[in-house]
Write a structure and sequence with these properties.
The protein is of the alpha/beta class and 179 residues long. The chain has six helices and seven strands; from the N terminus they run βαβαβαβααβαββ. Strands 2-1-3-4-5-6-7 form a seven-stranded mixed β-sheet, with helices on both faces. The chain is globular, with a radius of gyration of 15 Å.
Length: 179
């Protein structure tokens, strides 16, 4: 599966720092045979054109967007642009804001299909498996999803105790020289 991970821009009043989570997620996905790209908009202006160009070139089958409270409104815009580019592509969001504000995030983000709650390395690896029909979505722990019956949450996923068990982060997918 082709998976696009998006790091939204961030208000420059805050000190922008390299996001470590997306390279970890990318490495975990790659270890399972998925093709992954990261669209890092942190140090650049987030525009519809940048998102559309990547969507058209890469044609992802799943899009994951990270979000903190300060850039949640930007992540919301990105999700809307992704949905306009491909109305069928599943959109997942992770990060502290959506993990703690699940109902509000689904209410505020009509394009959003899934929320990864807490650490996402294992949840995001299982989500493509479920989307491919190789497991039930309700068996993906640490996931909230929009369904016709409302928002459904799966059981929580335990925290990763041994970070050495995770694959080495795919930092080559991020423009490190800009940091």
């Amino acid at each position: 599966m082709r998976v696009l991970l998006v790091n939204p821009s961030y208000p420059f009043e805050e000190f922008p720092r390299l996001l470590v989570t997306l390279p970890y997620l990318a490495a975990a996905l790659r270890a399972q045979g998925h093709e992954v790209e990261i669209l890092d908009l942190l140090l650049s202006r987030t525009t519809r054109e940048k998102v559309e160009r990547r969507m058209l070139r890469f044609r992802p089958q799943l899009v994951g967007i990270t979000s903190v409270t300060l850039n949640h409104h930007i992540a919301n815009r990105i999700a809307g642009w992704v949905r306009e580019c491909d109305e069928r592509v599943p959109i997942a969001m992770g990060g502290p804001h959506v993990s703690f504000e699940i109902e509000g995030s689904f209410r505020d983000l009509p394009a959003l299909d899934f929320i990864g709650i807490g650490e996402g390395e294992h949840t995001l690896v299982e989500l493509p498996r479920a989307l491919d029909g190789r497991m039930d979505l309700r068996d993906v722990r640490g996931l909230a999803m929009r369904t016709p019956d409302g928002i459904v949450r799966t059981p929580p996923r335990p925290l990763e105790d041994d970070l050495d068990e995770l694959p080495t982060p795919a930092r080559e997918l991020v423009p490190l020289a800009r940091y």
